[in-house]
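Supplementary notes (optional reading)

For those who missed the lab, this is the record we used. Protein: Tagatose-bisphosphate aldolase. Length: 299 residues.
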Amino acid sequence: MLVHIGSIINKKTVGKYAVPAFNTQDLETCEAIARAGEAQRAPLIMQTSVGALEYAGVEELVGLMRTVARKSKAPIALHQDHCHDFNLLKKLVNLGYSSVMIDASHLPYQENLKLTKAVVHYAHKRGVWVQAELGRILGSEDWQNVKSGQDLMTDPIDAAKFVAETRIDTLAVAVGSMHGIPVNPKIKKVLSTLKEHIDLKRLRAIHEKVKIPLVLHGASGVPDTQMRAAIRLGVAIFNIDTDLRVAFNKALRQNLKKHPEIYDPRKLLRPAADALQQEAEKKIKLLKANGKFIHLERK
């Protein structure tokens, strides 16, 4: 069922379990994510990147997501991941997303503040949540002037001030996780000096000062024990994409090699989608979201 994000993320759930936010870009991924939620009786977030919308088309992909979510027995909220374009966010709000992320973390603090406040003003008038980022999360989206991960991490005092001034609903924090799998040799060299893990001390300090749900991006590479610890420290949403892609592509390549005679795309893609579903179910259980099925009115 298609639900508002506020019905599956609230103060009562923070610290107990987290909701996975799975990226999608096509029919197979949408349906596999929904099946995972149903199988584990879990609420979840289906989200898009700007790249996914450019690949599939905004109306086309949103229409697909809404249809799959509405037909699913699992409570599913729609969210837009990292976006710099205010006009695109307006369009997605009007197309039915209940949460959008304005990422102005690449801008100076005051400019980040100004743009974020403008998005909040627009979205809140329409009952939509806003997520923003303070600090810079390492990975495929942010590589300028990277010398050490510490340089880009979220400052707890700045975070508290930023949340109070913008009135955002969720805050994406930079505490050591990374986006994607880097392929650029120079980027790999930088990453070789950085150990991907969550700075739990920093996360605890942020949680003590910030009273809204926290979001961890780049969760695919974080150790399971640290993900569980992060839940206790206020992380209510974990963005997961890379692990799903790896599972899908591994199964697809194996199927192509094993069955070179198959030419029907449906028969090639279904085992890959099943592998993605299995990986999504593992993440749901890791975040303790399984069994948290919430029966809500369809939107």
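If you only remember one thing from this example: The chain has one domain: 5-286.
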